[in-house]
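Chapter review: from sequence to fold.
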Amino acid sequence: MTRHARRILGIPLALAVATLAGFCDDGILLIVPELERTFSFESGLDGWSPLVVAASSSEAAGGVEVSGEEASSGQRSARFHLSAPEAGPAVVVQHLFELAPSQGYRIEVSYRVAMADPSGGPTWSIVGGAGPEAEDAGGSGPSLAALGSTGPAGADGRPAWESRVDTLRATSSDQGELWVVLGVSAQSGGERTYYADDLRLAFVREGGG
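The token string follows.
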């Protein structure tokens, strides 16, 4: 075995995994996610747990369930429903992923969302967050950031589907646990329903972990 070959075989496995990459035909470096998951919600919430984050409001109510009312592809989607007396509460789903310990990640989130805000009414916010701890009803888990605004119904009055792409960043726990939280936050009092479908998450390592 040559000296060069011994050096290649001596590269630690962790380093090899952390730098998953390849070159396409035109020589451009492609970064391959460490973990990639897709969710269609055809047979359930696929491991996502619903939660109403009420903050200071005890009157907010809502939930998330699989519905056949609307779908971007297939027959079903995740239906988000929230009744809020004022701005602040959110209805979310959260999912635990097991990754490398104490590692920073960029989480690329792509999805389809159907919206039908009242004409002339205030928009609400699509929110998301990630962190080593789960979210709870008091909002003490991952900090939820606004990823974008909701929108009006389509010309036919039905919820209008849009494609969205967002990025989250977080560091896993020392056991490698990382929670991802996605949902809708009320920016005014009222009752609204939204649908999500074709969700894809890609976890890419960041930093020198």
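Two observations follow directly from the output. The helical segments are 3-9, 13-18. The domain at 33-206 is CATH 2.60.120.260 (Jelly Rolls).
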